[in-house]
């Protein structure tokens, strides 16, 4: 029986486990093997000296394509304006280009580094804003868990608002937006989120009539006052139900839900006019909007709908197109916002967040969404994101979906399952980008910017 | 600690109870809604705009085929026309009838009591016992004769043993010419001709007018078989209503 030579073993190990794709070192070894420049002794030394690395490759195989040979190849369409980390197995840096607004999605189970990546993006964006104030990008963060981004925001001097502590939001339209059209959009959003399909037209009629009533005697130039939910409830209680809808049960259901919102939401919507995200952007500030533990639960979704609608649809109405990004909207834990169920609530149109992903780029608005379960996400969402970051996936369905999205071979689910914390596979879908998935080590943050764990 | 956003302070909402003008507006909304409800209950409204227009045109055009009225209103679609007709029928304001004239059906319309009441007008006298088709036809003949310069009138009294009322009568060259319109029945034609020729000496010519040529032929056969009327064969004329209609309402 012939003994396999060390050179043959070295050949086998490198090819079988794609070691040349993992690092430049193995690329050189392979080249030397081809040129016949490695002796038996050298092959034995390499095999034993790199035993741990070889064992890692066996335990955690990588089905990823090899990395680009050089940074110029990686950044063929332009160097990143914001760096996020280093490609594993090389010293090449990876980041986001900001020559136009680009959406990104971050997918992975809890504690794999999704939130950390978003924080790195915020810190780097803030640093860029300091160095290039003419190209300021406003960061708007919807913090639904509470605390994830607040400490960082305070250190960076961002605005932090918490609806539990007195901040109010008005239901009025964005600038130059037709009021009746806005009231119908608002009614659609509220009805969809609250499950009040039949009462949508009642609410629209109520808002339209109250807008007229409240603004009687308004002089040109004076701001339009918008009705509030408590005023809607009061109007329903003071007038016969037949004014507002065809059937009394629809009006009763609406009255019940408005009562619910007014009691649980407190003063949240008790503003006839107020601030807008456009005001924040215009003042070149970044903001964290804390919206944890909102009740009823759909109120958080409605609030996100309201704020995004005013921003996006206001710009669409004014045809206010922008090429360069003006705002990043961060939605962490966005499973609920982008799920099939959430999308199906909007049967004949897109939810505002989906519309932002679909159409926001042309208006200078980019979304950065963090999601846990890939399998639950509406598919069309992925078609509009330029950067996909896949952290360790929790469940087989999500892993399989991620594998398909990265066009990896079937056995690569182990690659996705074995990703350590703080590493992800990034895929860039924009034109000119490297077409293959790459393993990326996200940069650490200074301790003061992290939370309890600094990944 | 978070801060309240106050760079652009919000305008606090004021409860409706503290806005009398808003309460007055809502009260007016409620009143308007109650008025509308009462109107629907009393039935004094609910007629569509086109229905109103069709109804309003009828008194001035009492014998015009409905197609002429549709053209005046500007309703061309068959389904829209049918909807308006159904609406007027359901409200018991008008009746409609399709009558075979020549080779085509012609739609006719007549106002009912509620229709006249809605228009706040009195219905013309003397038509209550007549069918829609018969009433229209005799008036077409009358209008055609008047168009030719004759003083024609409907329900023309024919003097004789007992006064018989011909459908249309007029004097032509000093002689009494009458027309009898036969819509569907057969037997009445003998009675009418007998009344004109056997019970009276005043009638010079009787024109029997039918709606179709087929019906006219049947009537002629019937009359030819009646022995008592054979001596008057040269004083009986036969015609179809289509010609009168075309002359009075040319297309």
What does this structure look like?
- The complex is a heterodimer of chains A (455) and B (251).
- Chain A is an alpha/beta fold.
- Helix content of chain A is 42%, strand content 14%.
- Chain A has 19 helices and twelve strands.
- Chain A has helices spanning 6-16, 19-22, 24-34, 40-49, 51-59, 71-74, 114-131, 150-156, 179-194, 200-214, 229-238, 248-265, 277-282, 298-317, 335-338, 340-345, 352-359, 396-405, 413-417, and strands spanning 82-87, 93-96, 104-107, 138-143, 159-162, 271-273, 287-290, 322-331, 363-371, 387-390, 423-428, 438-442.
- In chain A, strands 2-1-12-11-10-3-9-8-4-7-5 form an eleven-stranded mixed beta sheet, sandwiched between helices.
- In chain A, strand 1 and strand 2 (93-96) form a beta hairpin.
- In chain A, helix 1 (6-16) packs across helix 4 (40-49) and helix 9 (179-194) packs across helix 10 (200-214).
- The longest helix of chain A has 20 residues, at 298-317.
- Chain A is elongated, with a radius of gyration of 26 Å.
- Chain A starts with 5 loop residues before the first helix and ends in a 13-residue tail after the last strand.
- The mean pLDDT of chain A is 85.
- Chain B has a five-stranded mixed beta sheet, with helices on both faces.
- Chain B contains nine helices and eight strands.
- Chain B is α/β, with parallel strands linked by helices.
- Chain B has helices at 20-42, 49-57, 66-73, 78-90, 113-119, 132-147, 188-198, 213-224, 241-248; strands at residues 11-12, 94-101, 104-111, 153-158, 164-172, 175-182, 203-210, 236-240.
- The relative contact order of chain B is 0.09.
- The termini of chain B are far apart.
- In chain B, helix 6 crosses helix 9.
- The chains are: A alpha/beta (455), B alpha/beta (251).
- Chains A and B meet through strand 5, helix 10, helix 11 and strand 6 of A and strand 1 and helix 1 of B.
- Strand 6 of chain A pairs antiparallel with strand 1 (11-12) of chain B.
């Amino acid at each position: 029986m012939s003994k396999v030579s060390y050179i043959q073993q070295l050949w086998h190990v490198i090819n079988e486990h794609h070691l040349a794709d993992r690092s430049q070192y193995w690329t050189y070894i392979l080249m030397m093997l081809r040129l016949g420049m490695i002796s038996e002794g050298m092959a034995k030394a390499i095999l034993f000296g790199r035993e741990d690395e070889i064992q890692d490759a066996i335990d955690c195989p990588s089905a990823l394509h090899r990395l680009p040979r050089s940074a110029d190849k990686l950044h063929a369409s332009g160097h990143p304006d914001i760096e996020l980390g280093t490609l594993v197995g090389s010293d090449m840096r990876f980041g986001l280009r900001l020559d136009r607004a680009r959406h990104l999605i971050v997918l992975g189970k809890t504690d794999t580094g999704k939130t950390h990546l978003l924080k790195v993006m915020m810190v780097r964006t803030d640093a860029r804003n300091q160095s290039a104030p003419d190209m300021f990008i406003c960061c708007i963060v919807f913090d639904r868990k509470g605390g994830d981004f607040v400490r960082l925001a305070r250190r960076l001097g961002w605005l932090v608002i918490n609806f539990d502590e007195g901040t109010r939001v008005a239901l009025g339209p964005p600038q130059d937006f037709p009021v009746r059209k806005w009231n119908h959009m608002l009614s659609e959003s509220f009805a969809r989120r609250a499950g009040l399909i039949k009462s949508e037209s009642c609410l629209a009629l109520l808002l339209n009539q109250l807008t007229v009533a409240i603004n009687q005697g308004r002089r040109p130039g004076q701001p339009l006052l918008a009705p509030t939910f408590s005023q809607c409830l009061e109007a329903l209680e003071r007038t016969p139900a037949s004014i507002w809808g065809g059937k009394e049960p629809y009006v009763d259901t609406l009255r019940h839900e408005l009562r619910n919102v007014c009691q649980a939401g407190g003063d949240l919507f008790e503003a006839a006019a107020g601030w807008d995200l456009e005001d924040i952007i215009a003042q070149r500030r970044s903001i964290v909007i804390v919206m944890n533990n909102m009740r009823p639960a759909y109120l958080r979704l409605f609030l996100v709908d309201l704020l995004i609608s005013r921003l996006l649809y206001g710009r669409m109405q004014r045809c206010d197109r922008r090429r360069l990004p003006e705002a990043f909207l961060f939605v962490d834990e966005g499973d609920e916002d982008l799920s099939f169920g959430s999308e199906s609530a909007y049967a004949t149109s897109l939810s505002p967040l989906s519309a932002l992903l679909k159409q926001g780029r042309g208006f200078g608005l980019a979304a950065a969404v963090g999601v846990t379960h890939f399998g639950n996400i509406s598919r069309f969402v992925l078609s509009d994101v330029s950067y996909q970051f896949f952290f360790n996936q929790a469940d087989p369905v999500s892993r399989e979906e991620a594998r398909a999205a990265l066009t990896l071979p079937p056995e690569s689910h182990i690659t996705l399952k074995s990703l350590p914390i703080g590493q992800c596979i990034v895929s860039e879908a924009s034109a000119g980008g490297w077409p293959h998935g790459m393993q990326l080590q996200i940069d650490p943050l200074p301790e003061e910017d992290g939370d309890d764990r600094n990944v | 600690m978070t801060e309240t956003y106050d760079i652009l302070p919000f305008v606090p909402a004021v409860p409706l109870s503290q806005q009398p003008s808003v309460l007055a507006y809502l009260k007016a909304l409620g009143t308007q809604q109650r008025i509308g409800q009462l109107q629907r209950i009393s039935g004094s409204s609910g007629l569509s705009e086109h229905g109103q227009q069709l109804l309003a045109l009828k008194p001035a055009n009492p014998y015009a085929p409905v197609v002429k009225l549709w053209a005046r209103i500007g309703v061309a679609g068959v389904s829209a026309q049918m909807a308006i007709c159904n609406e007027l029928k359901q409200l018991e304001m008008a009746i409609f009838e399709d009558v075979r004239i020549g080779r085509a059906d012609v739609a006719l319309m007549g106002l009912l009591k509620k229709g006249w009441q809605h228009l706040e007008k009195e219905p013309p006298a003397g038509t209550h016992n007549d069918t829609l088709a018969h009433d229209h036809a005799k008036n077409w003949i009358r209008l055609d004769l008047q168009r030719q310069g004759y003083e024609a009138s409907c329900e023309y009294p024919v003097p004789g043993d007992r006064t018989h009322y011909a459908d249309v009568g007029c004097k032509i060259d000093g002689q009494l010419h009458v027309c009898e319109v036969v819509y569907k029945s057969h037997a009445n034609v003998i009675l009418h001709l007998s009344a004109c020729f056997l019970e009276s000496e005043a009638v010079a010519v009787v024109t029997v007018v039918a709606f179709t040529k087929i019906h006219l032929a049947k009537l002629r056969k019937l009359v030819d078989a009646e022995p008592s009327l054979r001596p008057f064969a040269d004083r009986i004329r036969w015609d179809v209503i289509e010609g009168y209609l075309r002359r009075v309402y040319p297309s």
